[in-house]
Amino acid sequence: MFVDCHIHISLDGKDSKKWRCLITEKKYEPIKDILNLYKKKNILVLRDGGDNLGISQIARDIAASLGIIYKSPGWAIYKKGKYGNFLGKPVSGIDDFKDVFAEIRKVKADHLKVILTGLVDFDCYGKVGEIAFTENELTYMVQSAKEKGLPVMVHANSPMGVKMAIEAGADTIEHGYFLTEEELHMMAEKGVVWVPTLAPLGNILENGELRALYSDKIENIRKIFDGHLKAIKKALSLGVKVAVGSDSGSLGVHHVQGFFDEVRHFKKCGISEKEIYKMAVENGLKALGMDAKSEFLRRTPIS
Fold this sequence. Notes:
Blueprint: E1 2-7, H1 16-24, H2 29-40, E2 43-48, H3 55-66, E3 69-71, E4 76-79, E5 88-91, H4 94-106, E6 112-115, H5 135-147, E7 152-156, H6 159-168, E8 172-175, H7 181-190, E9 193-195, H8 199-206, H9 208-213, H10 218-238, E10 241-242, H11 257-266, H12 273-287, H13 295-299
Parallel strand pairs: 1-2, 2-3, 4-5, 6-7, 7-8, 8-9, 9-10
Helix pairs in contact: 2-3, 5-6, 6-7, 7-10, 8-10
Keywords: Hydrolase
Protein name: Imidazolonepropionase
InterPro entries: Amidohydro-rel, Metal_Hydrolase, Metallo-dep_Hydrolase
């Protein structure tokens, strides 16, 4: 059994605009087809990063009928006017969050997803989108989820953004580019799981069509990716719990294959495939807030 703890079923890795239009027409058979492929490849536990159309909730219901564990946040939370509109719902502050969180509770979300920072800037090495929430806002959101027993995944890049997420009590850090030893030590000490999502950049570097698309940025992308690999190596040496999350659905990262792409990129950190699969299961389950001794897992062989 494998665990991919960061996917986006609302995206297809190629033409997501067309894909999302198809789903909004209530044509759900393609979702079922993808989930059957995950099952065929023994990827039986999935965690979605959310969307603004409710697609991950539909996928969760379909997955249950197929015997797949599928965790959905309902939708991600992002700051109004900042990055994240296709991933979730905007809030302008704590009062807004209270209302949206009540909605999240009604759809029985499995975790809270917060988008704290913007994306990595491929044009300028080391630059990422600004931090969207204040420390007070982030802490309030994280603690609200914890009070209801919900794990919290935080999309965060940059040392400052990741440090802020860790201090607020995040259970997992998603992406986490440009980290220093300070943030890695903090994650190790607090037992925070890091999901570094290597496939989006790694696949750009290996795919001729994508390289051509980003031809004027490719050297920066390579530098960013190499730095990410070094940070993961350091994290593992410090005892950070690192999990496998492919970010499948993002451009160039296709569902199902994305998991195995992620494993292949992890091997560039000098880790054996066996170690990566073990890490994917153990740390992936921790990221999802799941007990490895659950009935489902006792009935399911771990690869």
